[in-house]
Design goal:
CATH architecture: 3-Layer(aba) Sandwich
Helix content: 25-40%
Largest sheet: 7 strands, mixed
Order of helices and strands: HEEHHEEHHHEEEEHHHE
Strand order of the largest sheet: 3-8-6-5-2-1-9
Structural class: alpha+beta
CATH class: Alpha Beta
Shape: globular
Number of strands: 9
Radius of gyration: 17 Å
Distance between the termini: 49 Å
Length: 254
C-alpha cells in the first residue's frame, strides 16, 4: 500500500468537544498560521503544540494537520469506552509513522513523586526538563500560564473534555523547532489515573497515594520536502474540521 492509499483509507472520529471559537481556519490556500518569526501555541484535540520562532508557516500547518489526523484516527479505533489509553497512544504513533514521521523513544515510565501533594503542571515541566532539557520550558510555561486566563477558559474546557473520556485521562504537550528543512518535535504524553474526580486536568492537584501518573517521551522528525508529496491528501481528511478542533492560544494578551 502506498502512503497515498494509506491516508485515503484512514477512518477518523471527531474529538469529544469542539473548541468554542474557530480562531484557526485553514485550507490549501490559507495563510494561517500567519507568522514564522514568533512563538505560537495551539490546542489540537488533546495535544498542546508550541512552535519556537523560526518554524516556517508551512511547517506549522503540517505539524498541526498531522497531529490532528493521528489523534482522530486513534479516537476512531479506541473509543471512550476503551480502558487502556496506552493503545490509543500506540495508534497515534503508528499513524504519525505512516505519514512520514520518524519517532524515537516511547517507553512508558511512572512518575516518582517527591511530595505528598503535587500539581500536574509542575510535574509536567519536571518531566519535560528531565527528558529534553531547558530549551523550550520558557515557551511551555508561557503556554500553560496563558491557559489559566479567563480569555482561554472556554478553550480549556474543551481541551479537558477531549483529554478525559478514557478511564486513564490522556493529554500531550509538544514543542517544535525547524532546521535544514526538517521539523523536530519533542512530545510528552501524560496518562493520569486517579481514585478521586479529576478537574482542570493541567492544573489538577493530586495526592501521591491516590493518583498514578505515567508518561512517554518521544522525539519525532519530519522531512518537509518528502512530506510535501502527501500534504494535500492529509489536509483533505480534515480541512472542514480544522476550525473546530484546532485553536490558537493567545500567548501575549491577559
Amino acid at each position: 500500500m502506498t502512503t497515498k492509499q494509506y491516508i485515503q483509507s484512514l477512518e477518523l472520529q471527531d474529538p469529544v468537544m469542539a473548541f468554542p471559537a474557530p480562531r484557526v481556519t485553514r485550507s490549501q490556500n490559507s495563510d494561517v498560521p500567519k507568522t514564522s518569526d514568533s512563538e505560537q501555541s495551539f490546542l489540537a484535540d488533546k495535544t498542546i503544540v508550541s512552535f519556537a520562532a523560526g518554524v516556517s508557516q508551512q511547517s506549522r500547518k503540517d505539524v498541526l494537520n498531522c497531529t490532528l489526523v493521528a489523534q482522530m484516527v486513534a479516537n476512531k479505533k479506541y473509543s471512550s469506552e476503551d480502558k487502556d489509553a496506552i493503545n490509543w497512544c500506540k495508534e497515534y504513533v503508528k499513524v504519525l509513522s505512516n505519514l512520514g514521521w520518524v519517532l524515537e523513544g516511547g517507553d512508558v515510565n511512572t512518575y516518582e513523586a517527591k511530595g505528598s501533594i503535587l500539581k500536574v503542571e509542575n510535574v509536567v515541566i519536571d518531566i519535560l526538563v528531565s527528558a529534553f532539557g531547558n530549551s523550550f520550558i520558557g515557551l511551555i510555561t508561557k503556554t500553560l500560564n496563558a491557559l489559566k486566563t479567563k480569555k482561554e477558559s472556554k478553550n480549556l474546557i474543551a481541551f479537558e473534555a477531549n483529554s478525559m473520556p478514557l478511564q486513564k485521562s490522556c493529554f500531550q504537550l509538544a514543542a517544535a523547532v525547524e532546521k535544514n528543512d526538517t521539523v523536530m518535535l519533542q512530545v510528552g504524553t501524560f496518562l493520569l489515573t486517579s481514585s478521586t474526580k479529576m478537574k482542570h486536568i493541567l492544573f489538577f492537584e493530586f495526592a501521591q497515594d491516590k493518583t498514578k501518573l505515567e508518561y512517554i517521551n518521544r522525539r519525532a522528525t519530519l522531512n518537509i520536502e518528502s512530506f510535501a508529496k502527501n500534504r494535500n491528501d492529509v489536509l483533505a481528511l480534515i480541512q472542514n474540521k480544522v476550525g473546530d478542533y484546532i485553536s490558537e492560544i493567545d500567548l501575549y494578551s491577559r
